[in-house]
Amino acid sequence: GQSLEQPSEVTAVEGAIVQMNCTYQTSGFYGLSWYQQHDGGAPTFLSYNALDGLEETGRFSSFLSRSDSYGYLLLQELQMKDSASYFCAVENQGGKLIFGQGTELSVKP
Amino acid sequence: EAGVTQFPSHSVIEKGQTVTLRCDPISGHDNLYWYRRVMGKEIKFLLHFVKESKQDESGMPNNRFLAERTGGTYSTLKVQPAELEDSGVYFCASSQTGQAKNIQYFGAGTRLSVL
Predict the structure, then answer these.
(1) Strands B31-37 and B43-50, how do they pair?
(2) How far is residue A89 from each of residues A23, A92, B2, B49, B66, measured CA to CA in Å?
(3) Which of A52, A106, B77, B97 has its CA 20 to 30 A from that of B65?
(4) B56: nearest CA in chain A?
(5) Which residues of A touch B108 (CB under 8 A)?
(6) What gap in Å lies between CA A36 and CA A56, rounded to an integer?
(7) C-alpha to C-alpha distances, A63 to A38, A96, B61, B94, nearest whole angstrom
(8) A76-109, pLDDT tens digit by residue?
(9) Nearest Cα to B44, choosing from A59, A89, A34, A36?
(10) How far apart are CA A47 and CA A34, in angstroms?
C-alpha cells in the first residue's frame, strides 16, 4: 500500500521555530509537496522537493531525503496566522498527489 | 486572476438522491484533479483529467461516481445514487502542464453531507 505518516498535532509559541516531519512509503515518487490549509479553506501550496536537500522560501523551508523516505517542513519566526493544518503529499505518476493525514499546528502567544 | 472555484460550497442530500458538483479550474490549466476527504481521513485522489480526457480514474470509488470535463474547461462530478459513506469534502485542483514543480491550485471544496 501507499502511506504517509505525519504527527497529528504540534504546538509552538509565537516567534519560535517548528519542524513538521513526514515519512512516506509509496510505489512511485516524483517529489514531495507541502500544503497549508486553514479551517474550511483551500489547501495552498507551500513548497516542493524533487531532489534531496533543502528548499527555502521566506520563513518556510522544506527538506527531503529520498534514501530515508523522509521530509520535513520548517517554519521560522512563527506567527499566530500560521495556525493551520499542514499536509505533506507525494507526487505520483501523472501528477496525482498522495496525502498524509496532516499535522495541526497551534501557535500560542 | 481567478482561482479554482467550486460549487456548491455545501450540499445536504438524502441517501439515494443525486448530487452534481462543479469545478471551474484556473483558465489555461490543462490538468484538473478531483480529491476527496472523508471525515478523519486523509485527502484521497479520485481522478485526473488532461483537457477533456480522463488520464487516471483509479481513485474513483465505484460506478456511482461519474466525472466529466466536456470541452476541457469546467468539470462536474456526479454521485448517483448517493450513499452515507459518500459524505465528505470534495476538492478540485488544477495545474499547468510542463511545470518544473507540481503546483496544484485547490478550490475551497464542496462539503457533502448525505443523510
Answers:
(1) antiparallel
(2) 10, 9, 24, 19, 25
(3) B97
(4) A94
(5) 40-42
(6) 16
(7) 22, 21, 33, 25
(8) 999 999 999 999 999 998 899 999 999 999 999 9
(9) A89
(10) 5
